[in-house]
Amino acid sequence: MRLARTPRSAAPFITQLIFTILFAGFFFVVSVEMWLHAHPVVLAFLAVFDIVAIGLLIDVALRSWRMIVEREPVVEIDRNVVAYGEPALLKVTEPHPQLVAEMDVKLVGECSVTEAVEFSQHRHSTTNMTRCYEEELLRITPQNDKPVKLQMRMPKSPPADGVAWKIVVNSRQKNGAVVEYPFPLRVREH
Questions:
Q1: 1 or 183: which carries more pLDDT confidence?
Q2: Domain range for 159
Q3: Are the CB atoms for 135 and 151 separated by under 8 Å?
């Protein structure tokens, strides 16, 4: 059975895109205005910001290209639902091994943690997801796009109540980027 990846939020990319457009647009307009009035010191100062703006535009273009062209790893498991203490067979396939310097596969359990802060007559609670279980299953340098088979075993019991299990594939790209691909895993009690 092929595991479906948790969708990635587009908010960070959209935020960077908006910031880049505003930053580059502002400094382009100011640079053109200063060029017409020819203030050499100000032009040299603005040239630095123009170079930063060009770098931001290149970064956004590369990220857009990566989102469109690159595909994520494929994770398959031999059963629909895994029980605590049971083994399972995983197959992990990296479709672009030439782009990946190193890849690791982990079994991760996430729990919700609630923090409460009391001040005067009010109480402020914050709930966050944190990793309460993490086990590295595999670390390799992919050589080809053939599937890698590995045996995993679920822990005998949950480390906490309400654990959300997932297989996480961390891919360290040859260009230095690190991409995390979470694949939710269905687990049942005995």
A1: 183
A2: 74-188
A3: no
Shared domain check, 158 and 78: yes
- In this prediction, residue 9 carries a pLDDT of 65
pLDDT of 11 higher than 70? yes
Residue 182's Cβ-count burial label (10 Å; 0-12, 13-18, 19+) is buried
**Distance from C-alpha of 59 to C-alpha of 36, rounded to nearest angstrom:** 29
The amino acid at 146: K
User: pLDDT digit string (tens) for 79-138?
Assistant: 889 999 999 999 998 888 888 899 999 999 999 888 888 877 787 888 888 889 999 999
With residue 56 as reference, give the H or E element that holds it: helix 40-69
**Residue 162, phi-psi category: left (phi > 0), alpha (psi -120 to 50), beta (remainder):** left
| C-alpha span between 134 and 43 (Å, rounded) | 53
Burial 78-92 (b: 16+ CB within 10 A, else e): eeeebebeeebebeb
Question: How many independent structural domains does the chain possess?
Answer: 2
